Amino acid sequence: MAEAPPDPSTDCASPVGNAAGPYWYEDHDSAVALLSALRILSAADQDLRRRMSAAMDMNTTDLAALRFVIAGERSPEPVTAVRLAQHLRISGASTSKLLDRLAASGHLRRAPHPRDRRSRIIVATDHAHAEVRERLSGMHAQMLEIARQVPAGTRAATVDFLLAMARHFDTEAPPKELTPRALSAVPDPVPDERPETV
After folding, report:
1. Looking at CB atoms within 10 Å, which of 11, 13, 153, 157 has the fewest?
2. Which helix (H) or strand (E) holds 122?
3. Residues with Cβ < 8 Å from 71, sequence gap 6 or more?
4. Helix H segments across the chain?
C-alpha cells in the first residue's frame, strides 16, 4: 500500500498536533501550514533528483548541469563552461571534470562558439535529449495536471508566494557564527575510580 503523504499540519514547524510545542513558530497561524508544505515539497524534490540522477548513473550536480544545458539551448545566449560554473556555483576546475564525465557518457559535447572563435559552447547530444524526454516527460505532464488543479483565482497569489520565497532564499545571508559553549558549562569527565589491574 502506498504511504500517505505527510500532513503539513503535523510538521515540526507547525504548532498543530505537536505535544512538545512548536520549535520555530509560536502562533496558531494557517500560514505555518504553508511553510510546512513548502518544506515537504523541498525535501521531496531533493529526493526525486537523487533518484533520477542515480537512475541515469550520474550524480545530482551532473543532472543539474545536463538540465541547464538543455534549457539553455532555447536561449539566445549559448551555454559556456563559465555560465555553467556560475549556475552550479562550482569552480572552473570542477566544471571541467564534470564536462569530461558527461562527454565520456555521451550526454554533452563541446562545440565552437557561433560568434566567438576563441570560445566553446556546451550542447546536449541526441542521446541526452532522448534520455531526458523518456525519463522526465511523464513526470512533467503529471506536474502540469497537478498545477491545473489549483483554482484559477488563486494561481497568481500562489506564484507570488513561491517567487517571494525563492527571492528570500537567494538573498538570505549565511548565519552568524554560533557562540562557543562556555567551557564552564561543560562538566568535567568523571574519573575512573576502578582499581588498576596488573
Report:
1. 153
2. strand 120-124
3. none
4. 30-55, 60-72, 81-88, 92-104, 126-148, 152-171
d(CA 185, CA 135): 54
Residues 6+ apart with CB under 8 A from 175: none
Q: Which cell numbers in the block locate residue 102? A: 558527461
∠ CA 173-12-7, rounded to 5°? 120
The better pLDDT of the pair 177, 11 is held by 177
| Max CA separation in the chain (angstroms) | 82
Q: Which of 100, 123, 101, 108 is nearest to 57 (CA)?
A: 101
> How confident is the model at residue 174, as a pLDDT?
77
DSSP state, residue 118: T
Q: Contact, 64 vs 94, CB < 8 A?
A: no
| Amino acid code (one letter) for 6 | P
What is the sign, positive or negative, of the torsion defined by CA atoms of 17, 22, 26, 29?
Answer: negative
- pLDDT, one tens digit per residue, over 11-42 is 544 444 444 455 567 667 788 888 989 999 99
Number of Cβ within 10 Å of residue 108's Cβ equals 26
Dihedral of CA atoms 151, 157, 159, 164 in degrees, nearest 10, equals -160
Contact 135, 55 (CB under 8 A): yes
